[in-house]
Structures are given as structure tokens and as C-alpha cells.
From TrEMBL:
<protein>
    <submittedName>
        <fullName>NADH:ubiquinone oxidoreductase subunit</fullName>
    </submittedName>
</protein>
<dbReference type="GO" id="GO:0045271">
    <property type="term" value="C:respiratory chain complex I"/>
</dbReference>
<dbReference type="GO" id="GO:0006979">
    <property type="term" value="P:response to oxidative stress"/>
</dbReference>
<dbReference type="Pfam" id="PF05071">
    <property type="entry name" value="NDUFA12"/>
</dbReference>
<dbReference type="InterPro" id="IPR007763">
    <property type="entry name" value="NDUFA12"/>
</dbReference>
<feature type="region of interest" description="Disordered">
    <location>
        <begin position="74"/>
        <end position="135"/>
    </location>
</feature>
<keyword id="KW-0830">Ubiquinone</keyword>
Length: 135
């Protein structure tokens, strides 16, 4: 019963009931990335023949966060390429780092020294500035 209410009322936690129904009815699975996100498209041929692009969408594994889409899939989702990464023999160059989702708002986020949420104490200010204290 809990999953039913979650799918009915939340869009950020996976798919909604409408997305599940549309995917079941019109979706063609294209592939899955290393994060577990599943990619779909409409197999209707009238979309490409009529001049409009086919519809492509992703069902996220967990919370919906667009930064969890790797580079190859991002290009396919935005119609920069017609070939999905599952049908390509892509090898990343040695200088390319592996994809990492945006860590903002997570414990992995960057916290500079002196930050409010950081563990360190703010460093002393250099120069001629002294904090005011009442006498």
C-alpha cells in the first residue's frame, strides 16, 4: 500500500502512476545506465516521419535528479544523437573522469574552511581587521 501512495502523490521518488501507465502502453525500453536509470522512447514511426522528434524519457533509480544522467545518455535524451549508448562502442579517453552526480545537498558536498556547516573553525582574518567587541 505504501508504494501505491508514493507513486500516486510523489514525482521525485521514481515514477508516478501516470508515467507507469504511459510507459507500459507506449514505451519501448532502450537501455539502462550504470546508476540503474532506465531509458525509454516511443516506438511510433509517425513522430519522426511527421517532422517532430520521438519522445524520450528516463525513469530514475531512486530520487529524480537530472545530474544522475551520464554524458552519453544526456546526448541521446536531448536528441544530439539518434544512437543510444547501448548501441555504440564508446570508449572514454584516458583523461576523462567517470560521471559523478551533483553532490550538492549531500554529505559529499564541498564545504570550505569556515563554512557554517563545516566542521572546522573559521580561519583568522589577515590584515588590519579586528573584530569589534563592546568595551
Amino acid at each position: 500500500m505504501g508504494w501505491f501512495l508514493t507513486e500516486l502523490f510523489t514525482w521525485w521518488n521514481g515514477q508516478t502512476m501516470g508515467t507507469r501507465f504511459y510507459t507500459w502502453r507506449k514505451g519501448e525500453k532502450v537501455g539502462t545506465d550504470e546508476f540503474g536509470n532506465t531509458y525509454y522512447r516511443t516506438p511510433d514511426k509517425h513522430h519522426t516521419a511527421g517532422g517532430s522528434a520521438e519522445r524520450r524519457w528516463v525513469i530514475y533509480n531512486g530520487y529524480a535528479d537530472a545530474s544522475k544522467i551520464p554524458t552519453g545518455w544526456h546526448g541521446w535524451m536531448h536528441h544530439r544523437t539518434d544512437t543510444p549508448p547501448t548501441q555504440q562502442d564508446y570508449k572514454p579517453r584516458e583523461w576523462q573522469k567517470p560521471h559523478r552526480p551533483n553532490p550538492t545537498g549531500t554529505p559529499l558536498a564541498y564545504r570550505p574552511p569556515g563554512s557554517i556547516v563545516g566542521a572546522d573553525e573559521r580561519p583568522r582574518v589577515s590584515g588590519d581587521y579586528d573584530a569589534w567587541t563592546p568595551s
